[in-house]
Amino acid sequence: MKKTRIGIIGAGPSGLAQLRAFEAAKKEGHDVPEIVCFEKQSNWGGMWNYSWRTGVGKYGEPIHGSMYKYLWSNGPKECLEFSDYSFDEHFKKPISSYPPRPVLFDYIQGRIKKNKVRDYIRFDTTARWVSYDEDVKKFTVVLDDLKIDKTYSEEFDYLIVASGHFSTPNMPYFKGIENFPGQVMHAHDFRGADPFKNQNLLIIGSSYSAEDIGVQCHKHGANSVTLSYRSNPIGVNWPEGIKEVPLLTHFENDTAFFKDGTSEKFDAVIMCTGYQHKFPFLPDEMRLKTKNNLYPDHLYKGIIFNKLPRLIYLGMQDQYYTFNMFDTQAWLARDYMMGNFKLPSKAERRLDIDKWLEENDKLTSSFDHVDFQTAYIQDLLALSNYPDFNVDKVAVMFKEWLKDKDENILTYRDKTYQSVVTGTMAETHHTEWMDELDDSKERYLYQDESEEMLSEKSEITAI
After folding, report:
1. What pLDDT, on a 0 to 100 scale, did the predictor assign at position 113?
2. Beta bridge partner(s), residue 36
3. Is the entire prediction scored with pTM above 0.85?
């Protein structure tokens, strides 16, 4: 009998979670399907795979990543820890709760390297088009091997879309912006705060990226940072040098005018105005059409496309939980594709989706959002054998994190939390976040040791 073939588009955290789920089944002695994962970048990690490039990449493809230098986790690492691969196992010592990007990327890679899934991935390969034949129940995926400029197609019984939804910018227009003399960019093309030193910066948006880019530019020497919000301000206790104003209405040369009647001159503008769910390789009837929210419509259990259940979407939600949520989704998707999780009827699936959508519509606060996503993950955990973790405790941490940010947006990253996987309490980082301008893995992990060695050396010299 011919093996089931599964295609995965994307080798970021969601695609890698799916590969890991199948590897876990293989280790348990199960016969797993044939799996091929396509990744248009030259390495895995999705957003966590930093590139200096903007616009288009080496082969002329739109750049996927929106990652930038000096990015530190903006939530406690204890809230995203893999329950089957702890930070303790990877780093062999306690580390702080808010590591920089290279450290988190190292952690993601550690689990994947341990499980030898690289063989499943075809790098520098992009999906061009997908079609589905109802008669034979198969997808045909047209692919481009970018390295050798070759187009070919392959057939699959199931298709998993794990291409993310933070790579196609939503770029609004404001009257007069075409005459603004300074730099105008979207957060997608932001690669670090250095160019904005000593500048007066306008950031449009009130999302996490607006908050983080604003604080980072303040930390790295911007003269002033002004955040312009459309509906609601972020509303934290901003330090001197950062402020929020209502929505921008228009520009006159380098002067921005706001809804409250105020105006100000700026040197540069960064649009932190969100991203579009974009799937140019999918025909209209297979495309997930949603805005960024906690429960996209048309996905049973947040992953299985209701109209065509052999099509699966991973990681398409707005996110408090990240890596561990992708895992719970991937484990359930794996069980379904291997025949161990039976789908109810289409009508029953629709009722289940509607129930979650109704709950989603009732949410009013950030705490409500955390509780909703916690309940969603608990629902998935009950349906698969993903190693259980204390989701309720993680929810408490998320709420503490929200309070920490409200108290002081510049120092919340200096707080420490306890792992729900190992019980280890995080170490306090050797340098306060506002004073730490080096985000390298070496500096982060080995500074304490190098300082110890210097101290010992000076003691020996003194003797």
Report:
1. 86
2. 7
3. yes
pLDDT tens by residue, 169-202: 999 999 999 999 999 999 999 999 999 999 999 9
Torsion angles phi and psi, residue 90, rounded to 5? -75, -50
| Rounded Cα gap, residues 299 and 303, in angstroms | 5
401 Rama sector, left if φ>0, alpha if ψ -120 to 50, beta otherwise: alpha
CATH architecture of 177-271: 3-Layer(bba) Sandwich (3.50)
CA 220 to chain centre: 23
Burial class of residue 214 in the structure, from the number of CB atoms within 10 Å of its CB (0-12 exposed, 13-18 middle, 19+ buried): buried
Say yes or no: do domains 5-167+275-405 and 177-271 share a fold. yes
- Asked if the 5-167+275-405 domain carries CATH number 2.170.150.40, the reply is no
Q: What per-residue confidence (pLDDT) applies to 463?
A: 45
Phi and psi at residue 406, to the nearest 5°: -65, -40
Q: Quick one: which of 94, 76, 73, 13 has its CA closest to 394? A: 76
pLDDT value of position 450: 45
- Report the pLDDT value the prediction gives residue 376, as an integer from 0 to 100: 97
Q: How many helices (H) and strands (E) does the chain have?
A: 9, 18
For the chain, domain boundaries: 5-167+275-405, 177-271
CA distance 278 to 162: 12
Looking only at the bridges linking them, the beta strands covering 158-161 and 5-9 are parallel
